[in-house]
Design brief:
13-stranded parallel β-sheet; alpha/beta; 2 domains; flat; single chain
Length: about 450
């Protein structure tokens, strides 16, 4: 992927972020009309003069919206007029009406029917985008995903990155594409979104039909070159070959360096834990020593508890957002969503830290301590000695070809279980002494 495509990818991501900014930021210029339900329909003849935010199973806009539209649904169909931008996320999005400004869409199936008119650019990502004959984009088309079948008209540029690009329509300026000529996207025909027809499958790589007209250059990257039919490309055709080479297998030196890096990371963090939280490390290893089998079982429980906690954060954030949005407390809703996002990210970060480092440090420390108690008891009082010995053994054993994955899973579960049991014990309430007051 070249510099221009990389820049395009960043622009698409920035545009996706605009959806959340529009949803979370209170509107100071225009009011917001929020609608939700199983099926939301804006009937023909109905006019909405505010920005519209819709969450539903199916969304159908047959009327007119004077403002931007943000919608998240399983199926979205636009048959009317949107005098603004359209931001759509869902399983399938079909446009057979008019959007006077930009369209930003993320969906498995995206289709522009013959009456579709996009006043500016279309930014899309998904499994398939299809422009039927008669559809028109007055700006440029930017798409990242599986396939694009373009039989309509794009007044400016087409920038594409994916498996298949089929050109049958008119492109006003340049086409820049990165395609995979070796992967047939037959799986796309198996896509099913209720109420939306499954898309046809385009041939792998780049295909330029005899009916296609490209007003500028055709620049593409692929494994194999393509010869466009005469008269289809007004400018130059530039091809960049991409060769797939499998990475060489790691050498013995590479494996040793990986082991050293992993050991160094675990050991340094272990020293920090020994210095800053010696009681936490000692308490966890005591739980692991006295109840090793229980530690393994509680490790499995802790994994399930973390998953349920993350799900609970998501559900509570959504529920609070819906309640606050229904009473039009948009500013507070944005704060709640931001707080839920931060809590979720913190939970993910702590989980990664616990699994990748802390659980293994706990197990390594206890393994090293048990070995030194039998070989060099005096060294046990030096925390770095059992830590170094145990982590070294753990790193070597988890790198073993046949049993490494099993050792790694057992170590992580035992470490998490020990942390879980120590946490439960610390949360148990101590009896509160009752002081008799003299009457």
């Amino acid at each position: 992927m070249n510099l221009k495509q990389s820049r395009t990818n960043r622009l698409v991501l920035l545009a996706m972020a605009a959806v959340f900014l529009l949803v979370l930021t209170p509107s100071t210029v225009a009011a917001i009309d929020r609608r939700t339900g199983e099926q939301v329909v804006i009937d023909t003849g109905e006019t909405i003069t505010d920005n519209l935010i819709v969450t539903a199973t199916t969304v159908t806009i047959n009327g007119r919206v004077i403002g931007d539209v943000v919608t998240m649904a399983q199926a979205v169909e636009i048959n009317g007029v949107i005098e603004g931008d359209l931001f759509a996320l869902g399983g399938g999005v079909v446009v057979n009406g008019t959007v006077t400004d930009d369209v930003l869409v993320g969906a498995a199936i995206i289709r522009l029917d013959p009456q579709a008119r996009i006043g500016n650019n279309l930014w899309g990502s998904g499994a398939s985008i299809e422009m039927l004959p008669g559809s028109q984009i007055d700006g440029s088309l930017f798409f990242i995903g599986g396939q694009a079948l373009l039989a309509g008209t794009v007044e400016r540029d087409v920038v594409f990155s994916g498996n298949s690009l089929l050109l049958r329509g008119a492109i006003g300026r340049n086409v820049e594409a990165s395609v995979d000529a070796e992967t047939e996207p037959a799986w796309i025909s198996q896509l099913r979104v209720e109420g939306i027809a499954s898309p046809p499958v385009a041939p792998a790589g780049l295909t330029v039909d005899r009916e296609a007209r490209i007003g500028g250059d055709l620049v593409y990257t692929s494994q194999t070159p393509v010869t466009p039919p005469p008269g289809t490309v007004a400018g130059q055709v530039r091809f960049t070959e991409v060769t797939r080479t499998s990475p060489p297998p790691p050498t013995l030196v590479d494996r040793i360096l990986d082991l050293i890096r992993r050991f160094a990371g675990l050991f340094l963090l272990g020293l920090i834990l020994v210095r800053l939280t010696p009681h936490l490390l000692r308490g966890t290893t005591d739980e692991l020593k006295t109840r090793p089998v229980a530690s393994l079982g509680w490790g499995i429980v802790s994994i399930l508890a973390i998953a349920l906690a993350f799900l609970a954060v998501i559900l509570l954030t959504i529920a609070a957002s819906v309640v606050l949005g229904s009473v039009r407390l948009n500013g507070l809703m944005g704060i709640v969503v931001a707080a839920g996002f931060l809590v979720g990210m913190a939970l993910i970060l702590l989980t990664i830290l616990a699994i990748a480092y802390v659980a293994q440090i706990v197990v390594g420390f206890e393994v090293g301590r048990q070995i030194l108690l039998r070989l060099r008891p005096a060294w046990v009082e030096r925390p770095f000695a059992p830590l170094a010995l145990g982590l070294l053994l753990l790193v070597v054993m988890t790198a073993a070809p046949a049993i490494g994955w099993m050792v790694s899973i057992v170590a992580v579960l035992c470490g998490l279980g020990a942390l879980w049991m120590l946490g439960r014990k610390s949360l148990v309430r101590q009896p509160v002494p009752v002081v008799a007051l003299a009457g």
